[in-house]
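Weekly sync, protein design subgroup
Attendees: M.S., D.O., the rotation student, P.L. (late)

Item 1: inverse folding check
M.S. brought a backbone from last month's batch and wanted to see whether the design step gives back something sensible before we order anything. D.O. pointed out we never logged the input encoding, so this time it goes straight into the notes. Structure tokens as presented (357 positions):
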């Protein structure tokens, strides 16, 4: 019995789903022989040599890739194999003769596009099970199919089991954010709120460390410059894991109050789980799946960013209650160990694939 992973996302490309698929492949390789069918060439040097993982890729023009995958799988796979698709789109590469053991990962915003409803429904109908990354995503999927087995498993397969201690002994209050800098992350709204807070409370001392790049970065930098906030904000751009580790460890609050805009939403938010691993409370958004990992008023806050007054109120409260944040961070770390460590997520996924109740 082999686990055949049909995917359009995989390293060395960088992104959340790439990390998820790598985490699943490596994490389950001790239980299954893994066969990966990616959409592009992947060097085997990205895979540890001692693992039972094979990468099967055949060059083809973009419009023929699904066809070549399907043709090869028709002769390569058998009925005992288990198929895992990174999304509903990848189901198209599985030959129709395979009617069982097809499992689909669901991430959130791909189910906001009802223009593709017929294609999505047809793909989901073929699934033995659907693995939603949050309860929010599960609810979205139910709008397309209501008679399928839908399991909620956090996409934290790649995260370590061990937790990390915070090392922040600084008097200044440190916010930290790491993300693709785009409108729905709530960074501009946070800047506006922090500007008002600083204008009204000059004695409060804070610094916001922002890592990442994206389409809104120049707008944020302009706001900072125009409003004389340069001493309080640092933009790092891309950071490596060592720098990210240091910034998480030195911070008091993780800040990413993401919200739903058009067809874009935070289906889960792996970075909130990363923050929890460091014993760091998060200020997340009320939209999407963040509430699965950030327990409101227990391990952080889930705020409706569109209510600017609410965001400002929580930020001001956090700045004045550092001791409470330490308590929230401890709760976040407990929640992480029990629910979001990679080992926990992999055990849940393994049971679904093996059809163990």
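Designed sequence read out in the meeting:
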């Amino acid at each position: 019995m082999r686990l055949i992973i049909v995917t359009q996302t995989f390293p060395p490309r960088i992104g959340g789903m790439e990390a998820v698929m790598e985490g699943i492949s490596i994490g389950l390789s001790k239980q299954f022989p893994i066969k990966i069918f990616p959409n592009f060439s992947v060097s085997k040097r990205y895979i540890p040599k001692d693992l039972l993982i094979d990468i099967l890729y055949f060059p083809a023009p973009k419009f023929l890739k699904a066809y070549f995958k399907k043709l090869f799988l028709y002769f390569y796979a058998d009925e005992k194999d288990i198929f895992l698709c990174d999304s509903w789109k990848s189901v198209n590469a599985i030959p129709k003769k395979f009617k069982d053991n097809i499992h689909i990962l669901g991430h959130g915003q791909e189910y906001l596009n009802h223009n593709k409803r017929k294609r999505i429904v047809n793909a989901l109908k073929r699934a033995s099970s659907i693995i939603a990354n949050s309860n929010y995503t599960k609810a979205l999927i139910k709008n397309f199919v209501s008679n399928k087995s839908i399991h909620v498993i956090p996409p934290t397969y790649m995260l370590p089991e061990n937790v990390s201690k915070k090392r922040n002994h600084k008097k200044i209050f440190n916010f930290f954010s790491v993300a693709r800098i785009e409108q729905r992350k709530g960074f501009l709204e946070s800047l506006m709120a922090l500007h008002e807070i600083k204008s009204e409370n000059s004695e409060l001392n804070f610094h916001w460390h922002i890592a990442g790049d994206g389409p809104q970065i120049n707008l944020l930098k302009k706001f900072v410059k125009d409003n004389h906030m340069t001493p309080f904000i640092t933009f790092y751009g891309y950071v490596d894991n060592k720098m990210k580790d240091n910034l998480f460890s030195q911070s008091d609050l993780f800040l990413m109050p993401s919200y739903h805009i058009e067809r874009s939403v935070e289906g889960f938010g792996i970075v909130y789980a990363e923050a929890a691993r460091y014993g760091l409370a998060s200020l997340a958004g009320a939209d999407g799946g963040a509430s699965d990992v950030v327990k409101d008023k227990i391990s952080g806050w889930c705020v409706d960013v569109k209510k600017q007054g609410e965001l400002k109120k929580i930020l001001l409260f956090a700045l004045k209650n550092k001791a409470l944040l330490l308590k929230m961070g401890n709760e976040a770390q407990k929640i992480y160990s029990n629910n979001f460590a990679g080992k926990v997520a992999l055990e849940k996924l393994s049971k679904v694939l093996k059809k163990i109740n």
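Discussion: The chain has a mean pLDDT of 92. Residues 88 and 123 are 6 Å apart (CA to CA).
Action: P.L. to compare against the previous round before Friday.
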